[in-house]
């Protein structure tokens, strides 16, 4: 099959995801959120968190391990401290509603922290920071995840890849979006390599006996190494504590374990939102932010470097391009999507 046949417009993929989810029992407004979230990852070049996750989301809805119509509750514990129970809903739906609640509270109190439990995989963490930044809020987002990283010195996975995302607004420009896993690489990249029968670079992972491996399948049975050695381990630990222990969600090996009597992922998130004019005026904030960004980009470049990019900038450039060109779907994923199209009676239309 030629690659041209694998190119799909963003609008057609969005429509497909929404229509399938609605047929699977998800309300249309929630389906729109999930489609936005998945496709933003693909537009940013993070295919491991994009529409490739859609078949697994559907599988979880079908087997009852994700609630398609959750009764999400938001409890106001303190004026600027909220607790959200996602009722095992789709992670992006839970997180967007938590973010909306955080923004509303921050309007009154300058900032808000929201602890979330009872959630699921929520896609790329930067998605939520981008939503907030485009509404003039600075956001910090943490989430825990399935065990994949050993404690430093251990040979058994305990912590998740546990990402950290921070986004801050700019005036009439794309926000700066920092989004990084605390593992040396996102687990999704190893999953993709395993599906394609490819090896992975040295230094990414250990097998189940704690030995270095370049075999992607052995890595998935073993563990991923933390970024920056013990520093990455410390950050992964902190994120699991903030997202899981602190919020009442699962933590450590209990996150998305689906073992024994567990039938829910119980992923935890912590979302912090700050008004950008909380300390200084909005005009001053924007002026200082532009000065900051311009000075960074104007730093003298190392040999062979054409441009210094701000975090998230390359992803935003790619997004602009792919919105025009469309998104290429790998053959194996395309086969899965065609099966879904047949099962749900929803056409999968190309570019």
Automatic annotation (TrEMBL):
Superkingdom as given in the UniProt entry: Bacteria
Keyword Acyltransferase set for record: no
Keywords per UniProt: Oxidoreductase
MF term (GO), any: oxidoreductase activity
Tagged with keyword Oxidoreductase: yes
Protein family (similarity comment): Belongs to the LDH2/MDH2 oxidoreductase family.
Name of the protein in question: Malate/L-lactate dehydrogenase
Organism taxonomic ancestry: Bacteria, Bacillati, Bacillota, Negativicutes, Selenomonadales
